[in-house]
Amino acid sequence: MKTITPSDLNAIRQTGTACALLDVRTPAEHEKIHVPGVHLVPVDDLDPEVLAQTKGFSKDKTIYILCHSGARAERAARKMEGKGFQDCVVVSGGTAAWAAAGLPVNQTDRQILPLNQQMQLVAGTMALAGAVLAFLVNPAWVLLSGFVGLGLIVAGATGFCPMVIVLAKMPWNQGSKKTNCCTA
């Protein structure tokens, strides 16, 4: 899978070359902070055939893909390549690395935790609840902690986490206004 650093992508943009930038985070994450000129399509809503019909995007054009840190962008790139996109490039470290490099971003004061941090809070709460319930109520509750641990192992090994998919659809992750595209 092709990757590019935020600094290298910014250098390409500074030359005036038109770049197709795709943000595959949730609307709320995007609303909080995003790279100017990026097109928002959450990874779970990504339909490569529809994207190919969107102005500035085509299957034979280089498309730079961002998420928070890289995992969702890689998933989106694989999905798009499977539908015939020729040149999908994941921005290493995603929007977090872009901002950390001091590159231009649009941001608001809206407070929202990144999806991976939300997942960690939910998984930790479930694992702790399983342990406490196993101690206080019934030893069988330890299975809840085991289930959460197995889920984390699968997510770490594959990059696929059903809990993150569910959390991404929660109302607080949808942003204050519904949007499919942001060019500002």
Could you please describe the fold and organization of this structure?
46% of the residues lie in helices and 12% in strands. The chain is built from eight helices and seven strands. It starts with a strand and ends in a 16-residue tail after the last helix. With 184 residues, it is α/β, with parallel strands linked by helices. The chain folds into two domains: 2-107, Rhodanese-like domain (Oxidized Rhodanese, domain 1); 115-173. β5 (62-66), α4 and β6 (87-91) form a beta-alpha-beta unit. The longest helix is centred in the C-terminal third of the chain and has 22 residues, at 115-136.
Topology:
Layout: E1 2-4, H1 6-14, E2 20-23, H2 27-32, E3 33-34, E4 39-40, H3 48-52, E5 62-66, H4 71-81, E6 87-91, H5 94-100, E7 106-107, H6 115-136, H7 142-158, H8 162-168
Parallel strand pairs: 1-6, 2-4, 2-5, 5-6
Antiparallel strand pairs: 3-7
Helix pairs in contact: 6-7, 6-8
CATH topological fold name of the largest domain: Oxidized Rhodanese, domain 1
Order of helices and strands: EHEHEEHEHEHEHHH
| Strands in their spatial order, largest beta sheet | 1-6-5-2-4
Quaternary structure classification? single chain
